[in-house]
């Protein structure tokens, strides 16, 4: 047997394999500017997620590629554009559920099963520890020449009431957001999983001239209304379901107490949510003052494009010092939360800081953003 007789069959196999791979790839990769094939979602999602069932976060490199090529440069988006409630299909729901930490099998179980309180609690807890509250889009990110860290300008596309943009940002870009983005998106997921949901305007601190928060109200799971909120930016967000019962305190896993009271100061709102923080130095709750979180109306059922939401959004983006004053990123964890501030990252448990790392330059700041929140700032996505 000669060397040529051995090499020729191998070359033939290589040619056939290359032709097969090229043909299969051409079947689903659109030409530049072309329309997306109808089967693109299933193929790309299966590739991106189905092979990584035990990974907490999706393949952000692939998702970024899909976002750039198929959302921004074609007429067909992965998620329909809308400013009202949209029904996510099984593929999008699976993507979202994997983004917040569920395996493929767990996602399929959540999609196929009926809504109940236990599943709602699992969804709430998973969302809070994987999707941060953050305002990166509202700020310029300065360069750090010593380490060739580039300037990233303030984004052209600021946070909006477009739930499509929020879903794409959270699912495909591995980002977080602020109250409207997070609660609009989570409400879309819950509704697509069969939960009966409503949106309510909320007035943080119960004293804002223009209310700028939104909460989710869930009906039909028990004899009372349930409040869910994954978008409250003040560190120490409640990580348990809150049945709306006046004067009936409920504690969360961090030791804080939450209680609803009647609010009859205005016609616009009728219920106030208060919190009593419990620190390590006062585990019995003594010496802790009750604080007003926000007030809302029990029968609110607002559209995402409601005028009051636009007014609240405008205030948040232009005059609210919490959002405009500095960059901030907050993510819950099993013991409390981790916060990325102006020049530090710190961990808080039961109201007290247990660890703090100073970040004296932009390179270290962005490294903390990536390491602890999974966010990599990319000037190409501006």
Strands ordered across the widest β-sheet: 5-4-3-2-9-8-7-6
Helicity, in percent? 25-40%
Number of strands: 13
Tell me, briefly, the overall form: globular
How much β-strand is present in the residues? 15-25%
Q: Radius of gyration, Cα only, in angstroms?
A: 23 Å
Number of helices, where a helix is a run of at least 4 consecutive DSSP H or I residues: 11
**Main β-sheet: number of strands, strand sense, barrel status?**
8 strands, antiparallel
Give unreliable regions as ranges.
15-78
Which structural class do the helices and strands define?
alpha+beta
Quick check: average pLDDT? 78
N-to-C CA distance: 61 Å
Strand and helix order: HHHHHHEHHEEEEEEEEHHEEEEH
Written description of the protein model:
It is built from eleven helices and 13 strands. The protein has 382 residues and is of the alpha+beta class. Strands 5-4-3-2-9-8-7-6 form an eight-stranded antiparallel β-sheet. It has a five-stranded antiparallel β-sheet with strand order 1-10-11-12-13, covered by helices on one side. A hairpin with an 8-residue loop joins strand 2 and strand 3 (213-219). The chain is globular and about 60 Å long. The model is unreliable at 15-78 (pLDDT under 50).
């Amino acid at each position: 047997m000669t060397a040529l007789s051995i090499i020729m069959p191998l070359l033939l196999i290589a040619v056939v394999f290359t032709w097969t791979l090229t043909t299969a790839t051409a079947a689903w990769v659109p030409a530049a500017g072309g329309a997306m094939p109808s089967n693109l979602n299933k193929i790309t999602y299966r590739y991106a997620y189905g092979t990584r069932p035990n990974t907490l976060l999706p393949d952000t490199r692939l998702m970024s590629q899909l976002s750039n090529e198929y959302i921004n440069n074609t007429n067909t988006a992965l998620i329909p554009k809308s400013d009202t409630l949209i029904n996510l299909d099984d593929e999008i729901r699976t993507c979202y559920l994997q983004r917040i930490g569920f395996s493929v099998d767990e996602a399929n179980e959540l999609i196929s099963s009926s809504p109940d309180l236990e599943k709602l609690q699992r969804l709430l807890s998973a969302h809070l520890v994987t999707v941060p509250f953050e305002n990166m889009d509202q700020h310029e990110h300065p360069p750090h020449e010593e380490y060739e860290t580039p300037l990233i300008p303030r984004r052209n596309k600021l946070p909006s009431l477009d739930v499509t943009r929020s879903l794409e940002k959270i699912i495909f870009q591995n980002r977080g957001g602020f109250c409207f983005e997070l609660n609009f998106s989570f409400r879309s997921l819950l509704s697509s999983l069969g939960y009966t949901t409503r949106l309510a305007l909320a007035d943080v601190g119960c004293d804002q001239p223009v209310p700028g928060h939104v909460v989710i109200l869930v009906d039909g799971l028990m004899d009372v209304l349930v409040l869910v909120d994954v978008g409250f930016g003040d560190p120490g967000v409640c990580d348990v379901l809150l049945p709306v019962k006046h004067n009936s305190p409920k504690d969360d896993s961090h030791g804080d107490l939450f209680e609803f009271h009647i609010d009859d100061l205005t016609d616009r709102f009728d219920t106030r949510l208060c919190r009593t923080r419990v620190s390590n130095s006062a585990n019995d709750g003594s010496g802790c003052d009750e604080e007003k979180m926000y007030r809302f109306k029990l029968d609110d059922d607002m559209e995402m494009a409601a005028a009051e939401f636009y007014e609240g959004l405008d205030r948040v983006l232009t005059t609210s010092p919490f959002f405009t004053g500095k960059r901030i990123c907050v993510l819950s964890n099993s013991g409390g939360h981790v916060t990325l501030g102006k020049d530090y990252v710190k961990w808080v448990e039961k109201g007290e800081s247990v660890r703090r790392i100073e970040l004296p330059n932009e390179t270290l700041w962005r490294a903390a953003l990536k390491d602890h929140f999974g966010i990599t700032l990319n000037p190409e996505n501006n």
